[in-house]
Amino acid sequence: MEARLQEARLLKEQGNQRYREGRFRAAAGRYHRALLQLRGLEPGLAPTPVPVPDLGQRAPALTPAQEDALRATQTACYNNLAACLLQMEPVNYERVREYSQKVLRRQPDNAKALYRAGVASFHLQDYEQAQRHLLAAVHRQPTGPCACQGSA
C-alpha cells in the first residue's frame, strides 16, 4: 500500500519535471501512470466484486495520513493533466473539463481548476458555465503573475 502511494508520488513529481521542460505529452503519461498506481486504493472501493462475503483478498485499510496522501496525489494529477491537455494540440476540451471537475469536487475553490474548467467550457460553447468558473477563478487567484496557468 505504502509502496504504491510512494510510486504514485514519484510519478507525479516526474510529470511535474516534464511539464516544466515543456514535454506535455510525457508529463501527461506520468500523471496517468500515477493515477493507475492509486486505482483500487481509494477507501470504499473494492478492487473486484467478491461473490461470497468475507472470502477473497481485501485491500488493507488506509491510515488517515495515507488517505490524505492518496486524495492529494489524485487531485494534483487530475489538475496537472488538465494543464497538460491545454498545451497539447488538438486540445481535448471535454477531457480538460472532466479532469477540472474532478478537482473541483474535492477543492471547490481551486483557482487553477476553476480557470481550466472555464476555458474548457468556453471552447465547448457553454458560455454561462465558462463565465461562472472564470469569475470564480479571478476571485480566488493568488496575487502576482497569473498563477492559474502553471502546473499544480
Describe the structure.
With 152 residues, the protein is mainly α. It has a single domain, classed as Tetratricopeptide repeat domain (Serine Threonine Protein Phosphatase 5, Tetratricopeptide repeat, Alpha Horseshoe). It has helices spanning 2-20, 24-38, 64-87, 93-106, 111-123, 127-140. Helix 2 (24-38) runs antiparallel to helix 3 and helix 4 (93-106) runs antiparallel to helix 5.
The number of strands is: 0
Quickly count the domains. Answer: 1
CATH topology: Serine Threonine Protein Phosphatase 5, Tetratricopeptide repeat
User: Largest sheet, described in full?
Assistant: none
Topology as a string of helices (H) and strands (E): HHHHHH
**Span between termini:** 25 Å
CATH homology group = Tetratricopeptide repeat domain
Under the CATH scheme, the architecture is: Alpha Horseshoe
Query: How much helicity do the residues have?
Result: 55-70%
Proportion of β residues?
A: under 5%
Number of helices: 6
Which regions have little confidence, pLDDT < 50, spanning 5+ residues? Answer: 45-56
